[in-house]
Amino acid sequence: MTTETTLTTADLHLLAEAGGLAPSLHNSQPWRFRPTSDLHGLEVHADPGRAVRAADPEGRALHISLGAALFNLRVAAAHLGREAAVRLLPAGEDAQPCAVLDLSAPARTPQPFGADLYPAIAGRHSSRQPFTNRDVPEALVADLITAARDEGVTLTMLEEAEVRRVLALTSEAEARIAADVVREAETRRWLRLEPSCDGIPLEALGSHDRDARIPMRSFTGHPPHHTTPAARFEALPQLATLITLFDSQADWLRTGQAMERVWLLATVHGLRASVLHQAVEIPDTRWRLRDPAEGPAHVQLVLRLGYGPPGTASPRRHVEDILDLPER
């Protein structure tokens, strides 16, 4: 029976399209969305066939990606005038679905996240180009910290000494990843032509400015023989870490929601971002990312923030490929 709280096909398409625009490791897009049996909500499932197993054997990055998609769904729900009540891992770890959204209640406020983040979903892109040396205003930094904290995650803007230490660990991890033939082969598999992504070939090209020393992974639409000229990156990038006290699948899902909330808010304010993921892919460099003075904690992500080019859109799977509609 259809009721006023039932999600329509158009609602489901809008939600899935928003969820499908979330960031993910190697643009793997490891999600599927399924309406609940009563059509009052949406389930978020992992797509195991799109796991990046060499780089992410524990599924941490996969769950962070799912968390980012989940946050986009929450923003899209607010756009539809619905309140999103979320349950993480309702059947426990390593079980599906990873999250369920109950969207049966009307939104209590039109802007539950303090700003209208919906337009930023389509405008949020990873910017792997040089940024200017303009500092992020302290007031905006405070807003980003609050946004992450509201999702149960700590965002820390790094001081100069910590930035240099994190960059050194990132460079070390990048070199180790480049020397790992299994990881490199996996990366190449994910970033070459994929028919479900509108036929746009991707290539992994490493660009590392000798002065700025930012190990920046670049994903472009150039053919394999293309080489990218060196660009002069900012002398001291503005880096932030996302940290959780524990390291469970629920923490990874929260990290993904915090990352996307921070990223969308940054986009609203004209701030660009990209992820330095190398050091968190290797257990010992990830452990060394943490600041011992902060006590026991788990660094989940390193974000590079700044002002500069907006970045380009990456290919996306069609809604029909990620939304499981009930048979009629």
Shape: globular
The third-level CATH topology of the largest domain is: NADH Oxidase
Helix content: 25-40%
Question: What's the total number of strands?
Answer: 10
Q: Largest beta sheet, briefly?
A: 4 strands, antiparallel
Cα end-to-end separation: 13 Å
Give the ordered list of helices and strands: HEEHEEHHEHHEEEHEHHEH
CATH architectural group of the largest domain: 3-Layer(aba) Sandwich
Integer count of domains:
2
Radius of gyration: 19 Å
CATH superfamily of the largest domain: NADH Oxidase
User: What structural class do helix, strand and pairing data support?
Assistant: alpha+beta
Spans of at least 5 consecutive residues with low confidence: 193-213, 218-230
Give the spatial strand order of the biggest sheet: 1-2-4-3
Query: How much strand?
Result: 15-25%
Mean pLDDT: 88
What's the number of helices?
10
What's the short story on this structure?
The chain has helices spanning 9-19, 60-79, 118-123, 138-150, 160-178, 181-191, 249-268, 278-281, 283-289, 319-322; strands spanning 31-35, 41-46, 82-88, 99-106, 154-157, 203-208, 215-220, 238-244, 272-275, 298-306. By secondary structure, it is an alpha+beta fold.
Give structural notes.
By secondary structure, this protein is of the alpha+beta class. It folds into two domains: 9-112, NADH Oxidase, CATH 3.40.109.10; 138-306, NADH Oxidase (3-Layer(aba) Sandwich). The protein is built from ten helices and ten strands. It has helices spanning 9-19, 60-79, 118-123, 138-150, 160-178, 181-191, 249-268, 278-281, 283-289, 319-322, and strands at residues 31-35, 41-46, 82-88, 99-106, 154-157, 203-208, 215-220, 238-244, 272-275, 298-306. The strands form three sheets. A four-stranded antiparallel beta sheet has the order 1-2-4-3, with helices on one face. It has a four-stranded antiparallel beta sheet with strand order 5-8-10-9, with helices on both faces. It has a two-stranded antiparallel sheet with strand order 6-7. α1 packs across α2 (60-79). It is globular and about 55 Å long. The two termini are 13 Å apart.
